[in-house]
Amino acid sequence: MACTFGIEEEYLLVHLDSGRVLAAPSKAVTRCCEAAVAPYFAPEMFRSQIEIASPVFNNLHQARSFFCEQRGRLGQALAQEGLGFYGAASHPCAQWLRQQARPDPHYRQVFADYQHVARRSLLSGLHVHVGVPVGLDRMQVINRVLYWLPLFLALSTSSPLWTGHATGYMSYRRVICAEWPHMNLPEPLANWAAYERYRALLQRTGALAEDGDFWWAIRPSRRYPTIELRICDACPRLEDALCIAGLFRHLVEQCLRPGQDIPALSREIRWVTQENYWRAMRHGLQGLFIGVHDQLPTNALGWLAQLQALHPADTVDAERAFAHARRIVAEGTSAERQLRRLGQARDAGMSEVQALREVVMQVVEQGQDVGCYTTAAPAFAADSTAL
What we know:
The protein has one domain (5-192, 214-368): Creatine Kinase, Chain A, domain 2. Helix content is 45%, strand content 11%. It has 13 helices and eleven strands. Strands 1, 2, 3, 4, 5, 8 and 9 form a seven-stranded antiparallel beta sheet that branches. It has a two-stranded antiparallel ribbon with strand order 6-7. Its EC number is 6.3.2.2. One of its GO terms (biological process) is modified amino acid biosynthetic process. This is Putative glutamate--cysteine ligase 2. It comes from Pseudomonas putida.
C-alpha cells in the first residue's frame, strides 16, 4: 500500500556575522521569508522562527525537489539581508529570555497558559505526516509503530548545546518537550474509540480546549487523515530529513499491509519504548538499546538492521532510506558534528563566543548546501496545502 506524505521543517533566523538569533525580526524580514517560500510559509510561536510546510508527496524525489527549491530560495532571500536560516533543533547560545512571542491570539494564549515553559521552548523539529486510508484506525497504527520511535529520534539528534553549554544530551530539545503536557509518548490507547473517550474527558474537565490538540511524539492529525511523526529533531542536512521521512513512510506502509504479524501494544513494549526513548535523548546513536528480538542489547546499527529484517525494503525509496540511515549511523548526526566542531574550535584557540559561532555557521552552511537549487518550479503537480 503506497501512502502519500508531507514534511514540515522549522528554522530559526540568525545573523550571518555573529550567529545570533534575531530576537525581533523586522516586518520586512518576515515579508522577505514569506515571499521567498509562499505559499508554503508558516509562522511559528516565536517571531524569530518560521516553518516550511510542504505539499503532498508521492515519493522522495518530489520531496527532494521541493525542499531543494524552497531551502535555496529562503537562503538566497535571507542572505541579501545578512541573515541565514538555522535548521538544527536548538541554537547553541540563544538567549531565549530575549525572544519575542509572535503576536497573534493563538500564541498569546499558549504563552499565557504555559508561561516559562513556553518561553524556554526555542526549539525546532522535523514533522512527517503519512496519509492513512479512511476507515483504518489510526491509533492502532500508532501502537504498531510506537516501539521504533526512539530510533527515529536517535537518527535525527541535533540539540546537544543550550545557552552556551554542552548539555550531556544529544537531544536536549526532547528534554524540554517533556515539560509540556501531552508532548511525550502518546497515552496507551487501544483504538480510536479509546482516543475519543480520552479526548472527551480532558475537554469535559477543562484540560483541553474543544479545538485543542495533543503534541505527542506521534499523533493522529486533527486537520488531515494522517499520522504525524513529531519526535524528531530538525535536521540541517536535507538528505537526513528525507531519510527519516522515507523510513517512517515505509514503516507505516508495512504496518498497513494485510496479514502483517505485528504484536499488539503491551505494557512491556511500552516500558521498553520509554527506556529506549530516554537512551536516544541522552546518548543518540552512541546508546545501547533494548532490541526487538528477546529484548537483548543492541547498538544503533543492529537496531536499524532489526527494523529492516522485520520490514524489508520493497521500494526504491525504502532501499535508499535504509542505506542513508546506515550512513548516518556511520558518520554521526548533527549533534555529533556540532560537538566535534565546538571541540575543534576550542583546540584552535578560539574564544568561546567564536567557537559557538563556528557551530552556528556549520549548521547554516549544511542547511543551505542542497546542491540542487533551481529557479524553476518543482517538477511535479501537487496540492499546495500540506497534509
